[in-house]
Design a protein that fits this description.
Elements: H1 2-22, E1 26-34, E2 44-49, H2 62-71, E3 75-78, H3 92-100, E4 107-109, H4 113-120, H5 122-125, H6 128-138, E5 142-143, E6 147-153, E7 156-162, H7 179-185, E8 206-213, H8 217-222, E9 227-231, E10 239-240, E11 244-245, E12 261-264, E13 267-271, E14 288-296
Parallel strand pairs: 1-14, 2-3, 3-4, 4-5, 7-8, 8-9, 9-13
Antiparallel strand pairs: 2-14, 6-7, 10-11, 12-13
């Protein structure tokens, strides 16, 4: 009996040490996608960041900045929740980090549920969101709030949209299949009307959608996006080989998309495991990550 107790104690200690390690380190995860140019464009590289939640890696986030800088990206995309919602006192670390990104590459940013709640609930958070947004815009960051813009990437036309998702769609225990409600209750969310929906092979732009809530990843792909970038699920907190994430912030068990690269039809879906945490500060077999996406020409 004593032997069993001792073994359980050391097992628990190893788990706690692993959680501590994973809460203070990150990895660079790389994915390749087909840019659809078929020899008419150049390869490109995007760094995708999400769910920092004020986490710091080194003084002033220097380790994280160095990792992004070392990739020499053509573009930096941010998927939201870089801060923790507050009246402003908890946004300083995130703002200071974000302000340094435009010196590396052009930055386009969408909101997560933390920024969105600050924006929707001014009676609770005052002007905290507007002050945060102003700092980012003044630094040269492009904020995408239910809008899309066009730019050149690797010589091809690319459209990037940032989907603004109401806080109500981040409520606990949201049903997995929520497509009808998502469209019926929020018609303004239908970003495709802002995109040139011609296929890339027919001269249309390569379409990228930043949408924080990964529960609707299949909906976004079915809209006709070439690349869907989500976050929010923090990798599922604990990940198991062959299964993936265990639980989502909505208390959904075994979410289908939690931290991986998937294909649905002609769309690539990439869900970041994020860079920080807040309500459940646990990561187990679920390393925080900087996501690097390389657009390759189809061979």
């Amino acid at each position: 009996m004593i032997t069993v107790i001792v073994c359980l104690f050391f097992l628990a200690l190893l788990v706690l040490l692993r959680i501590f390690y994973e809460n203070h380190t990150f990895v660079v995860t790389r994915y390749d996608v087909d840019s659809g140019t078929n020899g008419t464009g150049d390869d490109w590289k995007i760094v995708f960041l999400s769910d920092l939640h004020n986490q710091e890696y080194g003084e002033g986030n220097e380790k994280l900045l160095r990792a992004v800088r070392d990739e020499k990206p053509d573009l930096i995309l941010v998927g939201g929740d870089m801060l923790i919602r507050s009246t402003g006192e908890k946004s300083e670390k995130a703002a200071c980090f974000m302000e340094q990104l435009p010196s590396i590459a052009p930055v386009y940013c969408a909101n997560g549920n933390h920024e969105q709640k600050m924006k929707e609930c001014e009676e609770e958070y005052g002007k905290a969101y507007q002050n945060y947004k102003k700092r980012l815009v003044d630094a040269g960051i492009h904020m995408l709030e239910n809008e899309a813009c066009t730019l050149k990437l690797g010589g091809q036309n690319v459209q990037i949209g940032g989907l603004e998702i109401p806080v109500s769609f981040f409520a606990k225990q949201v049903p997995w299949k929520h497509y009808d409600s998502f469209c019926d209750e929020s018609p303004e969310q239908l970003m495709p009307e802002q995109f040139d929906m011609r296929p890339v092979k027919d001269g249309g732009p390569y379409k990228i959608l930043l949408a924080h809530q990964a529960l609707y990843a299949e909906t976004y792909a079915d809209w006709g996006m070439n690349l869907v970038l989500c976050g929010h699920l923090h990798g599922g907190v604990v990940r198991l080989p062959g299964i993936g994430g265990i639980i989502s912030p909505q208390l959904t068990l075994f979410p289908k998309y939690s931290g991986e690269h998937s294909r649905r039809g002609e769309s690539d879906i990439i869900v970041s495991k994020g860079l920080g945490g807040h309500s459940i500060p646990i990561r187990l077999f679920d390393r925080a990550e900087v996501v690097v996406i390389c657009g390759r020409q189809e061979k």
